[in-house]
Amino acid sequence: MIDTLKVILPLSEIKSKNKFIIQPAQFSLDTGEVFGEFPLFIDTKGNKISGARAYYNDEKINVTIFPGYSFDELQEITKQPEFDFEKDFSETWQGHIMVQVSIPKFFTGSNVKSISKVETMYALSEVQQYLFDVVGLETDIFKSNVSRIDTFVNLETDFNFKTYNNILSALNLKRKKKFEYAGTTFLYKNGSGQVCIYDKIEEQKNQGIKIDLNLNLMRIELRFLKSSKFKYEFGFKDLKTMLDFYEKIKEKYIKKINEDVFRYDMKELDEKLRISEISVDKLLKFFDSENKRYSFSNFLKALSFSQLNESDIESIELYVATLDNKKRQYYLLSKLKALKFQKKMIEKNKNISNLKLYKELKDKFEIETEKY
């Protein structure tokens, strides 16, 4: 259920021997003036570390220390009569420590499959130990606040991902902009949240990870990208409470995906996709009426062209627009215009099966979410 988790740690202790890389502040070569120098942390030996930020990244975890107070702000705070140097100085100097990790990948080595609540708690304990042993950071991760959480379900579909592209292209999610990438990823997003539906098999192949290529796996992710959004949705933001109310994470995921992705009934989807009863026989008759001599050849060409997504067609049009030979350019653009029209005719015929495909996804989503 949970994949990526990003948390803001509580006050933590950083060993003098740590793995952090310090990104230095910028400075002017002309005047030597330094820009963006901030307090970051004080290590266990009392060394005051400053810079633009500090970070540690590896294949398992990302840790970043962002500035808290500026030096001017720190100076003002320490002037306050109630300020206790011995007690408060290290805390005031320390920046915001953010940890981002894929929980299932950290625990099992892969983020393809989900892990249980108990396994998630074990994984977080292991993350805490990893921070101490490898990074040099001692903390209580269960006292941290959630800054981002990605939840997901995998659907083992009957067909490959691109078969469902017409449906995913037609979806309009409330208050979210839609983006398509190479026909294998559909992202619907706003400033604080995202729904991402993508081909998990293709992603794993692109990353060079071995996976069953005979499997069709569609991933549906819900992402809360900001701490404020997470608190607004759940009423809390600390990690411990999140784990105590783990079922609430699942319930929210199911509710949001049903409201956004699977909110259409068959009649609504029928109207949205502009379903037509045009059969293959009627399509052939259409091409026959356009050009009897080359009707079957034109039908096959249009059928092949209909497999291209919009970004592919745009790339072809941009290429044709760069041709120096204006006569050839005009000829190719007219051909493209005709093919695009024919593509629409074929897609109308395909829309009939889109209803069945949408119902397949909707039914499988219900079955999969019942398992968690």
Integer-rounded radius of gyration: 27 Å
Query: How many distinct beta strands?
Result: 16
Mean pLDDT: 84
Strands of the largest sheet, in order across it? 3-8-9-10-1-12-16-15-14-13
Largest sheet: 10 strands, antiparallel
Shape: globular
Helix content: 40-55%
Distance between the termini: 7 Å
Range of strand content: 15-25%
SS-derived structural category: alpha+beta
Provide a short characterization of the protein structure.
It contains 14 helices and 16 strands. With 372 residues, it is of the alpha+beta class.
Architecture overview:
With 372 residues, the protein is an alpha+beta fold. Helix content is 46%, strand content 22%. The radius of gyration is 27 Å and the shape is globular. Residues 275-279 have low confidence and may be disordered.
Q: Secondary-structure blueprint of this entry?
A:
Elements: E1 2-8, E2 13-14, E3 21-23, E4 26-27, E5 34-35, E6 38-42, E7 48-51, E8 53-57, E9 62-66, H1 71-78, H2 85-93, E10 96-102, H3 103-108, H4 117-135, E11 137-138, E12 145-156, H5 165-170, E13 177-181, E14 185-189, E15 193-199, H6 200-206, E16 217-224, H7 227-234, H8 239-244, H9 246-260, H10 266-272, H11 280-290, H12 295-305, H13 310-321, H14 326-370
Antiparallel strand pairs: 1-10, 1-12, 2-11, 3-8, 4-5, 6-7, 8-9, 9-10, 12-16, 13-14, 14-15, 15-16
Helix pairs in contact: 11-12, 12-14
